[in-house]
Design goal:
Rossmann fold; 44% helix; 4 domains; 6-stranded antiparallel sheet; Glutamine Phosphoribosylpyrophosphate, subunit 1, domain 1; 629 residues; alpha+beta
Length: 629
């Protein structure tokens, strides 16, 4: 697990190797937290190439595994962030081809895969989480790749001077004297809508995120070529068209086996490893799986003094039953509030999921003992853990019967009524909005919105093309609305929110986090299962709950989902009030200042439902102020 940043500069911009190394050294300092164990800089004057790298040593802790790394045939130079779980089997294949190894790292295996099979084929052989940048010195081409579900980040961009940039972290690019940082207003409106910047957008102009499952090639023609090595929808559709034919019992046993394999393969490490444990369905299944395999592991949880937000009792019960070496920290308001400036700093784009705060503190707490953590991310999207799947499906069933021409006629009304001075007209506009959706995608997008476009907090924008704009003709196959919503979460909410949160919060504390539920074999198998194996008798995540029921009381296996969220409303009315007020008062060319001030006062007077909406605006303005954009 590491961080990297680099560029291929145009002839006009490149000065000399000395200037480039100085700039790369400055960049490297900005991603130090992603890899404080070692660093490396690579420059190539002929190709105007510069790469900075910071290493968090996990596999092969020696200096021999230093990056950037050059292939044995001298054709490729690579920087690699992440872990490849099948590297030992690939190493055996490459050894049979005559590769002699200099290290025991997975980085060298990835590099020699690429050198021996080519970049495109080499990437398809990898099972893991990764962001990779590799330069082919022979044909002078730069290649980028990102893992299948978006666990590891990679940004790229080409400026008006034909310089090409790539990085694990936007802050690193912003620290380069060759990079111009200007806000992308279309992306910013997408942030204001969802509370995060969706893939493949970036908050900065001329910059994008490489989407999960994609490869990028940039060569001397100065053209960017994008290609998929993994198509999530095609894989999902294929598994739905080849449904599992066995019994529920067969499926449950297969799930148990696949979770065992996924957790076991994610234990590869030469550094201390543990697991996050909330006492929820997802993390409890992972720790149970490890225990069944005879694997003892440290577990970590945090809790709040506010009992309504505290999960610590559940985690303690699971840890006690499984006899883990459990580590717990109960947070007070001061712990959380003091780190908010750090949270703003380490999230390279504006981000407003409040669970970023406890996730950051959990990572900091765990890092005192371990360097790698197992986490339950991805299970809700895979096994159906959110109430919105049922709610959206139920609502769409009613809306789908409405005449399309009528929905098109009333669609503009909420925008008009939101600006009315009369409260009852505004309320009427919200009701119209709920019935104006002409597609399930539109309904879904509103369900995930912090600020809907009709609420007038920002200028509505139709130019941004994010993963939320994707529409799939799923009705032609045996895919329910319920299952389609789960799939949409997996390509939108998961990579753009949850995986961003866990990556930035953990890596800010130099901790690597691995997600067994995102094992492709497990994901594809679950996709093949019928709906009633996942949602049964009005119970979500039925199959995972059933596994837990054989070991734990119904206090654990029957508990409702509880968000990992702090008492934000109390903070904004108490210790954070002055800080929030100062930010609200700052002028901003994107946010409607008058409406923001009005909503802030409404919140202080008791409108608790505004909490997360206000937090998204406050974090956006705090991020702009922090980065002087």
């Amino acid at each position: 697990m590491c961080g990297f940043s680099g560029y291929v500069l145009s002839d006009k911009v490149w000065q000399n190797e000395s200037h480039t190394k100085e700039d790369l050294a400055n960049i490297s300092k900005l991603i130090y937290h992603r890899g404080p164990d070692d660093n490396g800089i690579y420059t190539n004057t002929d190709n105007k190439l510069g790469i900075a790298f910071q290493r968090l040593s996990i596999i092969d802790l020696s200096g021999h595994a230093k990056q950037p790394m050059i292939s044995q045939n001298m054709d490729w130079v690579i920087v690699f962030n992440g872990e490849v779980y099948n590297y030992l089997s690939l190493k055996k294949i490459l050894s049979e081809k005559g590769v002699a190894w200099k290290t025991s790292s997975d980085t060298e295996v990835v590099l020699e895969c690429i050198a021996n099979y080519g970049f495109r084929k080499g990437i398809t052989m990898l099972d893991g989480m990764f962001a990779i940048a590799a330069f082919n010195l022979k044909d002078r081409s730069l290649w980028l790749a990102r893992d299948k579900f978006g666990e590891k980040p990679i940004y790229y961009g080409k400026d008006k001077k034909s310089s090409f940039f790539f990085s694990s972290d936007l802050k690193a690019l912003m620290g380069s004297k060759y990079f111009s940082k200007n806000i992308n207003y279309s992306s910013a409106t997408e942030y204001l809508r969802y509370g995060y910047v969706p893939d493949s957008l970036s908050i900065l102009e001329n910059t994008h995120k490489l989407s999960p499952g994609k490869i990028l090639k940039y060569d001397m023609s100065k053209k960017i070529k994008l290609d998929k090595y993994w198509d999530t929808y095609s894989e999902f559709l294929n598994m739905r068209e080849k449904p599992f034919k066995g019994t529920y019992h067969n499926a449950k046993e297969e799930i148990i086996d696949k979770i065992k394999t996924a957790t076991r393969t994610r234990l590869a490490s030469d550094a201390p490893i543990g697991a996050f444990l909330s006492g929820g369905i997802d993390s409890s299944n992972l720790v149970l799986s490890l225990k069944v395999q005879g694997i003892d592991i440290d577990t970590f949880s945090i809790g709040f003094k506010d009992e309504n937000k505290n999960e610590a009792d559940y985690a303690n019960e699971v840890a006690h039953e499984l006899n883990t070496n459990h580590n717990e920290k109960i947070l007070d308001d001061k712990d959380c509030i003091n780190i908010i400036p750090d949270v703003v700093k380490f999230f390279d784009e504006p981000f407003s999921d409040p669970s970023q705060i406890p996730t950051f503190l959990l990572s900091r707490f765990a890092r005192k003992k371990i360097k790698v953590a197992i986490s339950g991310d991805g299970a809700d999207e895979l096994f159906g853990g959110y109430p919105r799947y049922k709610n959206i499906s139920k609502m769409w069933k009613k809306l789908a019967r409405a005449p399309k021409f009528l929905q098109q006629k009333i669609e503009p009304l909420p925008y008009i009524l939101s600006n009315s001075k009369y409260k009852f007209l505004k309320s009427f506009g919200k009701k119209i909005r709920k019935i104006s959706h002409s597609s399930i995608e539109s309904l879904y997008n509103d369900e995930l919105s912090r600020w809907r476009p009709d609420e007038g907090m920002y200028e509505k924008n139709f130019d941004a093309k994010s993963n939320f704009n994707q529409v799939f003709n799923y009705q032609v196959s045996d895919i329910s609305d319920y299952r389609y919503m789960m799939f949409r979460d997996l390509i939108t909410y998961l990579p753009s929110n949850l995986l961003v949160k866990i990556d930035r919060a953990s890596m800010a504390n130099s901790l690597e986090v691995r997600s067994p539920y995102l094992d492709p074999s497990l994901v594809k198998f679950v996709w093949s299962l019928p709906d009633n194996f996942l949602f049964k008798e009005n119970i979500d995540k039925f199959i995972l709950r059933d596994v837990l029921s054989k070991k734990f009381s119904n206090k654990i296996y029957a508990r409702k989902k509880q968000g990992f969220e702090p008492p934000l409303d109390l903070w904004l009315k108490g210790p954070l009030k002055d800080w929030a007020y100062d930010i609200v008062e700052k002028n901003d060319d994107l946010v409607n200042s008058n409406k923001l001030k009005f909503f802030f006062q409404s919140f202080l007077k008791g409108e608790k439902k505004l909490t997360y909406k206000l937090w998204s605006l406050i974090m956006f303005k705090a991020w702009r102020y922090q980065n002087a954009i």
